[in-house]
Design brief:
Blueprint: E1 11-15, H1 20-32, E2 37-42, E3 60-65, H2 71-78, E4 83-86, H3 100-121, E5 125-131, E6 138-141, H4 151-166, E7 173-179, E8 181-183, H5 194-203, E9 208-211, E10 220-222, H6 223-234, H7 238-241, E11 245-248, H8 255-265, E12 271-274, E13 284-286, H9 289-292, H10 302-312
Parallel strand pairs: 1-2, 1-4, 2-3, 4-5, 5-7, 6-13, 7-11, 8-10, 9-12
């Protein structure tokens, strides 16, 4: 993996530290950098207070409840900080067009203000988690390919990247990770991505809804492997990393492959096909070879991640169908 670059003990700010990836990362950091101080900034808008309980005792934790768009909060959050891991965002699937103004305000302008404040206060290192959605449909895309994002979420993340990259010439050491679609168990869960959504449907006894033919692909990444990718970045110098932007993923399975992986675990899981949501029929595919060259490798397979999630639903039984015995659950 290379030499340890981030000196420890150190004080690291994790924005969005109570979110899906953040809830995993703040625990990983304690193991990778014992004795460090991990400062968590989160507005707790998802009511995920439980993430702050049961934290490892190998690090010191500080929690600041506040909004990324509040200048006073940013001053407090960045005081004495050397390294920022910026996860905070309004997260949507690439095909979602909900709340565009809010999405841009937080993801684009919130990131812009955070970067500017980091430059003013002398923060040295800035790691930004972007999204595979910035490329738009198609692929497999490499980091040097043109980006044609579709929808407010993808566009806001791409615009945020542009803001982060402008800071490189002003002395900020920047790494941007374009993450594949996260899946798997974490302290704070989300069920909007297709893998986790399928886990919820299967766990509650409903058929897996496949849009279109199911031949479309998605870049997937287990949440624990995403946390390890961030540790890989922190444990190497920017010079050793070579690139500023990296794609990070485990694989590009078809939707049909994901459904089959569930059925291999539990043969009773059913599928149903729909032609609704035409944008969901599109493929999003990445090439992750550049980041693999750093020494990072995914450690949690799709099957293992699905097993863990389905196990969480093991005591849940579906209610009897309404009407005759052959009727489909909703």
């Amino acid at each position: 993996m290379g030499h340890t670059f981030l000196s420890s003990p150190s004080t690291i700010l994790v924005t969005g530290g109570c979110g899906y990836l953040g809830s995993q990362l703040i625990r990983d950091l304690a193991g990778a950098f014992p004795g460090s101080t991990i400062r968590i900034l989160d507005n707790l808008q998802s009511n995920n207070h439980h993430v702050l309980t049961g934290l490892p005792d190998t690090a010191d934790y500080q929690f600041l409840e506040g909004d990324l768009l509040d200048p006073a909060v940013l001053r407090l959050a960045l005081d004495g900080i050397d390294t920022v891991i910026h996860l905070a965002a309004v997260v949507r699937t690439p095909m979602s067009f909900q709340h565009p103004t809010w999405v841009h305000q937080v993801n684009h302008w919130g990131t812009s203000r955070l970067v500017e404040r980091c430059l003013q206060l002398g923060v040295r290192r800035f790691v930004f988690t972007s999204s595979s959605a910035v490329y738009g449909p198609g692929g497999p895309f490499r980091e040097t390919d043109s980006c044609r994002p579709i929808g407010p979420y993808a566009t806001s993340k791409y615009q945020a990247e542009r803001e982060v990259l402008t800071a490189v010439k002003r002395g900020l050491e920047v790494t941007i990770l374009r993450l594949g679609m996260l899946f798997g168990r974490a302290s704070s869960m989300r069920f909007d991505g297709v893998v986790n959504r399928f886990a919820y449907l299967a766990g509650t006894g409903r058929p897996l809804t496949i849009h279109g033919s199911g031949e479309q692909r998605r870049p997937v990444l287990h949440v624990r492997d995403a946390g390890k990718a961030l540790l890989t970045v922190l444990q190497q110098s920017p010079a050793h990393l070579h690139n500023v932007i990296y794609n990070v993923l485990a694989d590009n399975p078809r939707i049909l492959d994901i459904a089959s992986a569930f059925q291999a675990i539990r043969s009773s899981i059913r599928t149903r096909f729909t032609e609704q949501d035409v944008l969901s029929h599109l493929t999003f595919e990445l090439d992750g070879s550049n980041f693999a060259a750093t020494g990072w490798r995914p450690t949690v397979s799709l099957s293992d991640g699905l097993l863990e999630m389905l196990a969480d639903f093991r005591n849940l039984r579906s209610p009897p169908p309404i009407g005759d015995g052959d009727s489909e659950p909703p």
